[in-house]
Amino acid sequence: MKIAIIGAGMAGLACADALRASGHSISLYDKSRGAGGRMSSRRMDTPLGQVTLDHGAQYFTARDPGFRKLVSIWEQNGIAAPWPLAGYGTWVGVPAMSAIIKAMAAAHDVTWNCHVGGISRRNNEWRLFTGTGNIGPFDAVILAIPAEQAATLLSLHDFALARVALTARSQSCWTTMFVFEQSLGAVPSVIRNAGVIAWAARNNAKPERASAEAWVVQASADWSQVNFDSAPAKVSEELLFALSLAHKSDIPQPVAVASHRWSYALSAGTGDGSLWNQEIALGVCGDWLLGPRVECAWLSGQMMAQHLV
Ligand SMILES: Cc1cc2nc3c(=O)[nH]c(=O)nc-3n(C[C@H](O)[C@H](O)[C@H](O)COP(=O)(O)OP(=O)(O)OC[C@H]3O[C@@H](n4cnc5c(N)ncnc54)[C@H](O)[C@@H]3O)c2cc1C
After folding, report:
1. CA torsion sign, 24 to 7 to 33 to 118?
2. For residue 252, how far is its CA from the centre of ligand 1 (angstroms)?
3. 209 alpha carbon to ligand 1 midpoint, in Å?
4. Which of 5, 7, 132, 172 has an alpha carbon within 20 to 30 A of 37's alpha carbon?
5. Is the pLDDT of residue 73 over 90?
């Protein structure tokens, strides 16, 4: 079959890997400029030079045997390494989290900068509507995008699938990245659940990162919701203050700051794994069908592929 996958994050690429292995022809389309999805890393220009920080997923686990096997291949290929500071059996991409998605995407035909605004089906053929025209035909379409975005595309074709997506609401997450001229000293490199902070980590404490003192601070879901419409500068200021409270010490002004709001960061997971409408050859996968983790996204993509294999 000729299959279009919308979304080239972990779920879409895991699905593409499995489908191509069984002989299908796969094309992926992603609205972002580059590879990463919610595992992306961001390059910041600072007076100390360019610094790359993980600003989505901070680490991942590998409990499923199939996923564990793949992670050990990534380790052999030099794109993943253990990061025990985050806990037992935790991994990160190296030299940045996005390295994993970049490597997976390199094995496929991915069109970046391609926002799919609609899908249509006529005479058993699918077409995608994008800003630059229609793409197709395809025998099947798979949506590998967050629930809220999937619901919009699903609603005209399968209301039952759209309804599942509508029930899987995601929490937002304000994330601020700070680069400091000097080390903050002997403070813990990982902070969990401290006031408004859900997670904060010293990015340069991860393996194979540049040495500049760089921190990623992620606000709690409640705080992110209440401050959803705040200006990034205000968020940066408040999260810097929260970081100094968590460290119980004054911290210097950073030399570079960037805040990013993830509108659809984490969804509890519906438990469905993946969804497939055989009659119209329309499927959906993503972390939100299992749980808010990289490993769940991979499993969901693999489960989606099983419907067609
Ligand atoms: C702040 C934050 C912290 C996290 N921390 C962790 C953690 O520590 N450990 C962990 O395991 N997980 C963590 N996660 C969750 C993890 O990142 C996700 O579970 C996983 O990356 C989801 O993969 P996915 O493929 O389902 O979705 P995504 O990675 O979101 O991929 C979807 C892709 O679809 C594209 N897209 C969306 N709509 C369209 C459209 N209309 N047309 C074209 N393309 C489109 C997007 O650009 C994106 O690339 C975190 C997530 C966030 C945001």
Report:
1. positive
2. 32
3. 22
4. 132
5. yes
Q: Which atom of ligand 1 is nearest to the CA of 13?
A: 25
Task: Give dist(CA 30, CA 272) in Å, integer.
Answer: 24
What CATH number does the domain located at 40-97+170-267 have? 3.90.660.10
Fold of 2-31+114-168+268-308: FAD/NAD(P)-binding domain (3.50.50)
| Binding site membership of 83 for ligand 1 (Cβ less than 6 Å) | no
Q: How confident is the model over 123-159, as pLDDT tens digits?
A: 999 999 998 899 999 999 999 999 999 999 999 999 9
Distance CA(150)–CA(86), nearest Å, equals 31
Find the mean pLDDT for residues 237-248. Answer: 95
Domain residue ranges of the chain, discontinuous segments joined by +:
2-31+114-168+268-308, 40-97+170-267
267 lines ligand 1 (CB under 6 A): no
Task: Please say if the pLDDT value at position 309 is more than 90.
Answer: no
The mean per-residue pLDDT over the stretch 184-196 comes to: 93
264 CA closest ligand 1 atom index: 53
Two tokens at 194? Answer: 């401290």
Instruction: Tell me the one-letter amino acid at 125.
Output: E
- The token pair at 285 is 């996968």
Q: Is 54 in the pocket of ligand 1 (CB under 6 A)?
A: no
